[in-house]
Design a protein that fits this description.
This protein is an alpha+beta fold and about 140 residues long. Helix content is about 25%, strand content about 35%.
Length: about 140
């Protein structure tokens, strides 16, 4: 199983909305590298749900429920193939203690985390070591 971090602005789509909807398409990604990461996701992969801009913290864990398919929010011209994709994410549970960006930056072992190195990227891989550390920081025991 691979691990990821997905970012959403809570005023556009929040953790509470994810929980209320249960399973939701992760749409609107318009960055080539982030889309590449979406295409690499497999059913059962887990991701941290991160509130960007407002809050700047990991607030929950989601799971890939459906692998990459064409993003229905893309405006595709007639005769053109879709460029962008999305995956369906299912809420797994809230982070017992949200992990703030400040706490992440203060942890030297997380210096190479993509969230620090490529802060504008909305979908990014998380190594097994970083996943385990972030889970401990947030009190997440489910793995």
């Amino acid at each position: 199983m691979a691990h990821w971090l997905v970012k959403s602005e809570p005023d556009a789509f929040s953790w509470d909305q994810q929980v209320a909807n249960g399973t939701e398409p992760w749409t609107g990604v318009r960055n080539a590298l982030a889309a590449k990461h979406l295409r690499a996701m497999r059913s059962g992969d887990r991701a941290f749900f991160y509130h960007s801009n407002v809050g700047k913290e990991i607030v929950g864990v989601v799971e890939v429920a459906r692998e990459a398919y064409p993003d229905p929010t893309e405006d595709v011209a007639a005769g053109k193939a879709p460029r962008w994709c999305c995956v369906d994410m299912r809420a797994v549970g809230p982070m017992p203690r949200p992990v703030t960006l400040a706490a992440i930056k203060a942890e030297p072992a997380l210096a190479e985390l993509a969230l620090i190195r490529q802060s504008r990227l909305s979908v990014m891989p998380v190594s097994a070591e970083h996943w385990a550390l972030l889970c401990r920081m947030g009190g997440w025991a489910a793995g």
